[in-house]
Design a protein that fits this description.
Low-confidence stretches: none
Shape: elongated
Number of strands: 8
Distance between the termini: 45 Å
Number of helices: 7
Strand content: 15-25%
Radius of gyration: 20 Å
Strand order of the largest sheet: 1-2-3-5-4
Order of helices and strands: EEEEEHHHHEEEHHH
Helix content: 25-40%
Mean pLDDT: 88
Largest sheet: 5 strands, mixed, barrel
Length: 254
Amino acid sequence: MPAYSAEALILRTYRFGEADLIVVFLTRDRGKRRGVAKNAVTSRRRFGAALEPLTRGTVAYFEKEPRDLVRLDRVDTMASPLSSAMRGTAGIGALGHAGYFAELLDEWAPEAQANEKLFRLGAAVGDALAAGAPVEALARYFEYWLLRLEGVYPGIVECPRCGDGVLADGAVFAVEDHAYVCRRCSPYGTALSAGALAFLRQAGATAPGRVGTLRLGGGAARELEAAHRRLIAMHLEKDLRSARVLREIGPDLL
């Protein structure tokens, strides 16, 4: 049975029998994999907190063809959102968003197909979260970059309907066009202010670790959350469970 070791992000776990867990993890070089963590439910000695969503570490596992499930041997943690969760009330937001980011990666990452750009985005955002980056700005940043890497984020420079409407002063998300259009072409719909668009333009040239340097007011953040929720739902054809949990927790606790 061949043994492998890879840098990976933990995406999610679920029960497998009485004592085991199925672990979904994203590797840099072999894509998304699924493995059995034996006795992970009844004994935390080998895995401990290493199976929390968005934990980055070295995963050692065994693979036997043609089985889809590998067997996890250990996970050596390199970075974890739990380090941010230890910082009082802010930790609730860190853990909630770690689950949200991991669920988005799980939905978009294909099985057993390497996607290094997607892995690097997840790893960098996870590290920023562990370092205490502001969670709301980081969430809007992550959504923007994920959709952009997947080639489905609308243009933010000019209106695709009229061709001469510059979007710097504000835009409206036109569902039928799957695009941001100027307010002259569509005065109704999910609107983005100049501040929200400025955040997106800055996010395109900013590393995840520097998200805290970007300006994002409360109103602009809510606009982007609404627009991104519609974009994500359009492509996944569902609302994510972790996103619903974040909305139920509410901004006061995040």
